[in-house]
Amino acid sequence: MSVRMLPAGHAALLVECDGLAEVLALHDGLARSAPAGVVEFVPAARTLLVGVDPAVLPLESAESWIRRTAAALPGSAAPASTLAAAADPAAGAADIVTVPVEYGGDDLHETARLLGVSPEALVAHHVNAVWRVAFIGFAPGFGYLVSDDWPFEVPRLEAPRTRVPAGSVALAGAFAGAYPRESPGGWRLVGRTDAVLWDAASDDPALFAPARRVRFAAVRP
Hints:
With 221 residues, this protein is α+β, with helices and mostly antiparallel strands. The chain has helices at 20-33, 59-71, 108-115, 119-128, and strands at residues 4-7, 12-16, 38-43, 47-52, 96-103, 131-136, 143-146, 161-164, 168-172, 175-178, 183-185, 188-192, 213-218. The radius of gyration is 18 Å and the shape is elongated. The chain is built from 4 helices and 13 strands. This is Allophanate hydrolase subunit 1.
C-alpha cells in the first residue's frame, strides 16, 4: 500500500491514503503492531492521524514503522465495507455494542422505495448487519459505520433538514449512523435510539468509537 505522510505538529503524523478501505486496513495493521510511544489513532475518510509521544517514539521512528506496515499491506485494499469487522477478527459477540432502535423514522418508507425493497426488508438488513465505526466526524460522537453485510447506497436528502432530533438513526451513502444531539442533517432517518451516543464526562465519551463493532436491535415503541 502506498501512503503519503505529513508532519502534524511535533507529536503526530498525518497519513494520506487512497480511500477509506486503505485507511481501515492501515489502522488495523498499525493497531496490531503499535510500539511503545503511540498515543492515539484518529481515522477519517482518507487520512489516519497517528499521535505519538516523541520522547518515547521520535517522529522519524514512527514514520519508518508506518511505512513498513503500509508496505506489507495489499496495494489496493478490499472495498471499505469488507473491512467492517476487521479490527479484531477473533472478537466475539460480547465485544459488539448493541444499540436499541425504534424503527419507523420519517424517511423509512421512502428510503425503502428508493432502494427497491420493503420497509421490513430494509430494517432486517440494518439489524442483521455487523457494523464497524470507520471514523467520527460532523459532530462529537457522530460515527460513520460501514458493514460488509450492507448492500445499499442510500442517496442523501436533496434538501437537508434544519433540525434532526437527537438519537435519530440514519443512512447515507454506504454509511449508517445516529445523531448524538439535535442538529441539521441530510441523512435519511429510519429510526430512533435512546442510547447515550456522546457523554463528555465519561472516560470513553463516544459510544461509536473508531474500530468499535456495532449491531442495531429493533425494539417496540
